[in-house]
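Ribonuclease Z
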Amino acid sequence: MIVDRDGNITIITQEKASVKTLVNNIEQTYNKYNNYHLIVNLSSLENIALEDIIEFLRLSNNHRSDKKSFVIVTDKVDLEQMPDEIVVVPTIHEAYDIIEMEDIERDLGF
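C-alpha cells:
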C-alpha cells in the first residue's frame, strides 16, 4: 500500500495484496485519512471483480457521510455494473474531477 498526499486529497495505491487486505488496512489506519478526500487507485491490479469493489462500500459510505469524497480508480471493471453508492472511474484525472465537482456541490449545499 502506497500513500501519497496532494493537498486535501490522499491517494492510496494498491500494488500486490488483495482488495480485502487493502480495505482492512485502510480501516485500521482510517484516522490518518478521515480528514482528506480519498482516491483508492487499483489500476495496477490485474483482476478486479464487482465483489472486490463492493468490499469498499461500507468504507465509502462512512467517508462520504463525513462530507469527504471517496473515489476508486480502475479501468478493469464494467462501470455500468457498479452500484450507484460508490464512485468508480477509469483514471486518476477523472477522480480529481469528481472530487472537484463534489466539493462544488457541497459548497452549494446539495
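The longest helix spans residues 92-108.
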